[in-house]
UniProtKB/TrEMBL annotation:
<keyword id="KW-0449">Lipoprotein</keyword>
<dbReference type="GO" id="GO:0005525">
    <property type="term" value="F:GTP binding"/>
</dbReference>
<protein>
    <submittedName>
        <fullName>Uncharacterized protein</fullName>
    </submittedName>
</protein>
<keyword id="KW-0342">GTP-binding</keyword>
<keyword id="KW-0547">Nucleotide-binding</keyword>
<dbReference type="GO" id="GO:0003924">
    <property type="term" value="F:GTPase activity"/>
</dbReference>
C-alpha cells in the first residue's frame, strides 16, 4: 500500500471478518479493496486468507485487516480464533443468487454463536455483483433485512469496484469511533 513502511506493524489494527456463502465474492472483494484489481479466477485455498490495507481515519493511520474464510465457509466450520478480536463483520451475498441472500440469517446466527461474551462487532450486510444482469434480490429487500438486523447496508461490485471503498471506509470509521 502507499503507506507501507517498515513501521507498518506499529499502527493500530481493525480486524474485520468476511462471511457469507462460497462464491458470493468475499475473496474478490478483499483483493479488490486491498490490491485494487479484480482477479476473475475462482481459487479455493484452505485455511484463512488475510488481506491488509492501511487507511486513514481522521488523523490516524489504521491497518484495516480483512480475514477471509478461504473455502472453509462451505462447512460452516470456521475455527474460533477466526472470530477472536474481530471488531467488524461483513456479511456478503450475491444479488443474483437468492439462496446466498436467504443464508445471511444463518450466518448471523453462526456469528452470534462464535463471538466471545461481550465482544461487540459492527456488521455490514453487503450485496455484491451489482454489475451483473439477472438480479434476484432487490436493493429494498437488502436494506430491509439490514434494518431488521440492526446492520449497515451496502451494494457493491468487486468487478468494477463500485461503492467498495466507501462502504469499507464507513465501516472502519464506525468501528474506530466507538472504541
Ligand atoms: P468467495 O467464494 O466468496 O470468496 O467468492 P470469489 O471471490 O471466489 O468469487 C466467486 C466468483 O464470482 C468468481 O468467479 C469471481 O470472479 C466472481 N465475482 C466475484 N465478485 C464479482 C462481481 O462483483 N461481479 C462479477 N461479475 N463477478 C464476481
Ligand atoms: Mg473465497
Amino acid at each position: 500500500s502507499s503507506f507501507a513502511s517498515k513501521n507498518d506493524h506499529l499502527f493500530p489494527k481493525v480486524k474485520v471478518l468476511m462471511l457469507g456463502d462460497a462464491g458470493v465474492g468475499k475473496t474478490s472483494i478483499s483483493r479488490r479493496l486491498t490490491e485494487e484489481e479484480f482477479h476473475p479466477s475462482y481459487v479455493h485455498t484452505v485455511g484463512i486468507d488475510f488481506f491488509e490495507k492501511a487507511i486513514q481515519i481522521h488523523d490516524q493511520i489504521v491497518r484495516l485487516q480483512l480475514w477471509d474464510t478461504a473455502g472453509q465457509e462451505r462447512f460452516h466450520s470456521l475455527i474460533r480464533p477466526y472470530y477472536r478480536g474481530a471488531s467488524g463483520v461483513v456479511l456478503v451475498y450475491d444479488v443474483t443468487d437468492r439462496n446466498s441472500f436467504n443464508n445471511i440469517q444463518e450466518w448471523m446466527e453462526t456469528l452470534r454463536e462464535n463471538l466471545n461474551l461481550g465482544q461487540i462487532t459492527d456488521t455490514l450486510i453487503m450485496g455484491n455483483k451489482t454489475d451483473l444482469v439477472g438480479r434476484r434480490v432487490s436493493s429494498a429487500e437488502g436494506r430491509t433485512l439490514a434494518q431488521r438486523q440492526n446492520c449497515a447496508f451496502a451494494e457493491v461490485s468487486a468487478k468494477d469496484g463500485n461503492n467498495l471503498e466507501t462502504s469499507f471506509m464507513g465501516l472502519a470509521q464506525r468501528i474506530w469511533n466507538r472504541r
